[in-house]
Amino acid sequence: MAKLFVFGIGGTGSRVIRSLIMLMAAGVKVQNCDKIVPIIIDPDTQNGDMNRTVELLKTYKHIHNALGQREEGFFHTDISTLSSIAGDGTAKIRDSFVYDFGGINKPFKDHVGYNQLDVESQALIDLLFTPENLNNSLDVGFRGSPNVGSVVLNEIIDSPEMRFFASNFQAGDRIFFVSSIFGGTGAAGFPLLLKNFKDPRTGLPNAASLNTALTGAMVVLPYFSLEQPAASVDADYIDSNTFTTKAKDALSYYQHHLNGVNAVYYMGDTPDKPMENNPGRASQKNDAHLVELLSALAIVDFMDYSDDELYGNETYHEYGLREDVSRVQFQHLDSETRDKIAKQLIRFHYFERYYTMFLPGDAQAAYAKGVDLTSAIRNEPAFKELNKFLTSPEFGYQAWLRELSRKERTFAALNLDETDFNRMVSDKQVETGFLNKGIYQGAFVKELNRAAESVSERDAFKATIKAFETATERLVEEKLKYS
Asked: What's residue 477's pLDDT?
């Protein structure tokens, strides 16, 4: 069956994939493929944004595997590592969602062999790169310098990971790139990989399939700014004042050299309050942003198109809210977006809120007694992974939703701090109330008990997830009337 390879390039790529995972957890469907294979490319191996996304991917994968293959529902989409797609256990690459940048932690001047060049060649290098470029270590990325990134990233084409990817790429598989246009890694990595995949003379395996593969790209324009340190501070920082200029230069290059993309998506926003300036490593851990959530939707939209609709076409997409508001609710999204994500996110939010707040007290409820839920939650690994996914302060759903609410343009459709289920959806409050505060008398536990009656699965984890899927669907459609 067809696979979708998602290349998340740089910090923005990791953050968009994080939002994509949340959509997949909520049950948003991705058409025309049965497996998503994220490949994160970031030379900063300690990058906080990347590492929390990797942990989230691992946790999602554990939960999906525990539930097994399903056509719909929470966590139903198969998200696999690159090494696992061969299926025969012969992979000779690390079982990871991240490309291995081993050996890159040396100054750029050593990477290009500056000291071994003749005087004339050194003079040319000095013209093309600043002293900071030449002396910077690359283990924290390219610090907003795509000219550096384009040189270094050329080497990944001949890497074991890239050749393994190409060897397992089949006709019918698709490719999607996610990168920013105003930084270093993303701005350099996307056009470089695209050029090599679409080059008929490429030395990669399965060149014909790569050349003709349906390809999409999310190009993220500037949407945040960074604090500018005082002049006396160490100059190891990123100057966000150059973001717009870099984006314009990159767009000019894309206009003339971006060949082989069937659908290009553009997303950006006016930057809000400047964030702390962290050039890399663990300290680079930005709050989730609405732009990243909407960018993740580009992947879903791209996969909605059939092969016939995409072949031979080049389409360009932008996104706009129905109103220029600071607190974005479902009503501010276009009807197509709401149809794709609103009900799924509401159901998942109801699931997380009830599971976290009230389920521990449901030991005597019929749905819990039937599978000895209390014991299962205490002892079974799948429930521990689910708890991490929902509540981890580093990468979990609660943290993600809180981060989205801290921006000047917030995603305020769902209320994490609300304990009244009638008021958890910002633009769909039910004044009469359908979930009272008495747990056992409330509609939720009744729906869970009712759902459990039709679940034949005796595995506690599978049975519990299925009961919540059924119960939340009925509650959202019949009680909340959000469909």
From this structure: 86
The tokens for 279 are 């050039």
Q: What confidence score (pLDDT) does residue 478 get? A: 81
- Strand stretches in 122-220, DSSP E: 174-180, 214-220
Distance, in Å, from the CA atom of 7 to the CA atom of 36, rounded to the nearest integer, reads: 11
Which DSSP string do the residues of 83-147 spell out, in sequence order? GGGSSSS---S-SSSB---TT--SBHHHHTTGGGS-HHHHHHHHHHS-HHHHHSBTBTB-TT-HH
User: Which candidate, 191, 333, 321, places its Cα nearest to that of 264?
Assistant: 191
Q: Which residue has the tokens 């501010």?
A: 332
CATH class of 3-104+139-319: alpha beta
Distance, CA of 438 to CA of 362 (rounded, Å): 12
Backbone angles phi and psi of 40, in degrees to 5: -90, 125
Structure tokens at 358: 């009230």
Tokens of 337: 């977006």
Distance, first Cα to last Cα, the chain: 31
CA count, 13 A, side-chain hemisphere, 279? 19
Q: Determine the pLDDT at residue 181.
A: 85
Determine the Cα–Cα distance for residues 227 and 275; give it in Å rounded to an integer. 6
| H helix runs in 305-370, sequence order | 307-310, 335-357, 366-369
| Cα distance between residue 479 and residue 472, in whole Å | 10
User: How high is the pLDDT of residue 457?
Assistant: 77
Q: What are phi and psi of 36, to 5 degrees?
A: -110, 130
Q: What is the pLDDT of residues 76-86, one digit of tens each?
A: 999 999 999 87
Query: What is the average per-residue pLDDT within 335-342?
Result: 93
Residues contacting residue 233 through CB under 8 Å, at least 6 positions apart? none
pLDDT(147) > 60:
no
**Numbered ranges of CATH 3.40.50.1440 in the chain:** 3-104+139-319
Distance, CA of 388 to CA of 292 (rounded, Å): 22
